[in-house]
Amino acid sequence: MTIRYIAASRLPTPWATFTMHGFEDEATGKDHIALTLGEVGDGEPVLGRVHSECLTGDALFSMRCDCGYQLQEALKRIAEEGRGVLLYLRQEGRGIGLLNKIRAYHLQDQGADTVEANEQLGFAADLRRYDLCVPMLETLGIGSLKLMTNNPRKVAALTRAGVGVSERVALTTGLNPHNEHYLSTKAGKLGHMMALGDFTQASDVDIERKP
Ligand SMILES: Nc1nc2c(ncn2[C@@H]2O[C@H](COP(=O)(O)OP(=O)(O)OP(=O)(O)O)[C@@H](O)[C@H]2O)c(=O)[nH]1
Ligand SMILES: [Zn+2]
Questions:
Q1: Which of 71, 86, 101, 149 to mutate to test the pocket of ligand 1 (most atoms within 8 A of CB)?
Q2: Which of 61, 74, 123, 205 is the most exposed place for a label (fewest CB within 10 A)?
Q3: Which CDD domains is this protein grouped with (predicted)?
Q4: Does residue 49's CB lie within 6 angstroms of at least one atom of ligand 1?
């Protein structure tokens, strides 16, 4: 795998002005982004989020999932800490791509859960890869993360790939009537370490999305 560092710039957001680093995965042609804040290359574990693209949740305010809420909360927490990193990986729909995710949503509209929908389309439940995080983090001088996630498989995959995870930090936010079943399925079938009682409600986060 060859990940090429392309360029960096400032990225002002409502929470902080991050540095945005652009990377290209030469094998797939996909571009990936890292946002950093503060001195991240000092050898100490860095508060981090490894976020997989969800166009619908991250950019279109979808309430079907928790992605947009988690993205916002992660940036806010990094800003509060004054130091951290967010990797934004272009593996939409747990790796099946946007159009197949829409197909999967159609099946979910008819009663399938998120895992069954993937399987009915001939995909495994989760096709994501995390090995590209290694060169991205190495380029930024980051050796280990205090990782914001509820997904133990992500922790295991990153650890296997060679990224130190010094701590897991829960990221349970954005519960609303539209994603309750999806979040229960993630906990029940995909092993996410969370209970619905742990969640802050969608209405508690900064951008309010009315149920
Ligand atoms: N195939 C498919 N992908 C989905 C669906 N809902 C969200 N996604 C994708 O799932 C990915 C996010 O994965 P999640 O399982 O929500 O979260 P995670 O990153 O594994 O775990 P956390 O770190 O706790 O957020 C994004 O790429 C979304 O586009 C769905 O119903 N079907
Ligand atoms: Zn999502």
A1: 101
A2: 61
A3: GTP_cyclohydro2 (cd00641)
A4: no
Cα(204) to centroid(ligand 1), Å: 21
Collect residues with CB below 5 Å from ion ligand 2.
54, 57, 65, 67
- The list of the chain residues with pLDDT below 50 reads none
Shortest-distance ligand to the CA of residue 93 = 1
Compute CA 174 distance to the chain's CA centroid, rounded to the nearest angstrom: 14
| pLDDT for position 194 | 78
CA 92 to chain centre: 10
Place of tokens 């951290």: 84
Q: Residues with catalytic annotation?
A: 126, 128
The reply, when asked if residue 180 is annotated as ligand binding, is: no
C-beta of residue 154 within 8 angstroms of C-beta of residue 163:
no
Looking at residue 13, which CATH number applies to its domain? 3.40.50.10990
Domain encompassing residue 71: 3-91+128-171
- Residue the block writes with tokens 């309430």: 63
70 is in an annotated binding site: yes
Alpha carbon 149 to its chain centroid, in Å, reads 8
